[in-house]
Amino acid sequence: EVQVVESGGGLVQSGSSLRLSCAASGFTSDDYAIGWFRQAPHKEREGISCISASDGSTYYADSVKGRFTISSDNAKNTIYLEMNSLKPEDTDVYYCAADVRPRLLLKLWVHPWEYDYWGQGTQVTVSS
Known about the structure:
The chain is mainly β. It contains 1 helix and 11 strands; from the N terminus they run βββββββββαββ.
């Protein structure tokens, strides 16, 4: 069974960096994608980045482009989200999710309903 588990959240100051990890396992092929989302209370879940396991394509939301970098370490089955120049508005619960039937990622990666498996989330708090 596919499992994704996030780690690496914490409390940091504005302007700092933080790296989140997503341990992903249980895939039967490399035809899947891992997305990172974030959500604040009473707000919709926002797609911020995605990486395709099959070809390494990456996608970013405008809100994080140039500050966040998604990458994968296939030997460790781990996907990372390197977050730089953090701002107080980046404060959220961050989730990673697995899409085991990726299609039209260029258009669909940002939608939570595209993903099949979700982690429990990790809190990121950025103080001003």
